[in-house]
Amino acid sequence: MHDGDDSVNVSRRRLLRASAGTVAVSAVGTGTATASGRDGGGTAPWFDDCPDASLEPTKGHCVEDGMEGCADDHPATVELRSAVQTALEERYPDAGALIDAGYKPYFDSLDREDDSYSHWLNPEYIGDDALLDPERPESVLVDDETWRSIGVMFVATRNGDAVDPPAVYGGSDGDATTDDRPIDGTADPAAPCSPWHSHEGLPGRFAWWYYQQAYEREFADGGIGIPCRTPCMLHVWAVDHPESVYAHHAPPPEYRDRDPAAEVGFETDAEPGSDELGWDVLPDELVPERRPDEFAALVPGL
Questions:
Q1: How much is the pTM?
Q2: For the chain, what are the domain ranges?
């Protein structure tokens, strides 16, 4: 998933070129790549129903000013980060452990800012009804040099469907486990710390579409649209970060000073610390039938 946030003005000609590319994706027999509207009804060229769409990696705040009330030293943040650190150390320390736990790799071939980390997603956790559960993070963020886990990305879904995200702390009800309003519902304006973001730029939307195609549908034919935006997502970094525990971008390499993973956990000739983690070092059974760049090549502008 791409985490850039630069806004750009996109011409209709470029949008038309991108729309033509999505038709080409559907023509190869791997599912329809037209975009669905925010209400999930019907399909249309991806720009018509998506007023915030762009060809560049852009993100939006799921809750207006949701980051304003967040503090790294707030007891709720300290507790959440500590729980994430414990889960990563004990259950999900590295790429090998993630594979054993059912996580699937996603290496972003569309990333224009090489942060050298990858998202590993767990279809079971994305498909359950838990939110903000450090024991069951929907995605784990892995440093591609050391192959070690450096944070998590929570995804606001229930049973695979996007929902309105809960606040980390604060809000009128203060209960992060009972809020299952649809994603278009009005967020609680009293929630002081709700640093969730979604992606409206085509790279992020494409990444979510690819995850669904590769790991939920196994490239089955049939209609599945590129959404107008991804579900809401929230990073919690287990390693130190100069900006915030909840920062969107990965911490600089000097903040990830960790020894390489001691054990690989799967059959490969590559070694953590010497070889970068990526599709090419994984055994064939862990690599999807088609990689993201095969589809991206069919979408002009990506």
A1: 0.78
A2: 59-219+226-291
